[in-house]
From TrEMBL:
Keywords for this protein: Kinase, Transferase
Organism placement in taxonomy: Bacteria, Bacillati, Bacillota, Bacilli, Bacillales
Tree of life domain: Bacteria
Protein name: Shikimate kinase
Record-linked SUPFAM superfamilies: P-loop containing nucleoside triphosphate hydrolases (SSF52540)
MF annotations from Gene Ontology: kinase activity
Amino acid sequence: MKLILLFGPQAVGKMTVGQELERLTGLPLLHNHKTIDLLSPIFGFSEEMWRLSTLFRYEIFKSVAKGNSNGVIFTFVWAFNEKEDWKFVEEICQFFESEGREVYLVELEADLEKRLERNKTSNRLEHKPSKRDIAFSERELLDSMDKYRLQSFPDEIKKRNYIRINNTNQSPHEVARKICEAFILDCK
């Protein structure tokens, strides 16, 4: 049983790489918008929506870590300048590590031009209803760059199973294969 945490800024390709990893590993994908898009129609993008989304995620991770499944793939936008995000990542990793499970951290990065292009893909819009307002989504993507640090500094992440991949010019399949090879994951 394992946790594969894919993180990076918006539209970097986390979900599409996660979908490919899901296909190759058989692990289910919980992309971050599954909880966001469940709750935002009811609560908007309010503090209550984020609180409930985090609560749902914690409970899912606790159950998966203690259960009989092989694990889960989770995508996340990690704001490195926010203590709460560090705490969230440490806690979900601890759920798995305390059960003797492996945790794999994969940081994706891509050029801004490529991210803006990916922000409009049909796959993204199909699976993330709240991103269908492309003008809003693009503004949010650009504004977040001023407010948050969405990439780690060199040697900032101390976990044993960590890699960083620039996927600007790589397909989701190529990136997923690199992840499988780096962590010696059982992939089809």
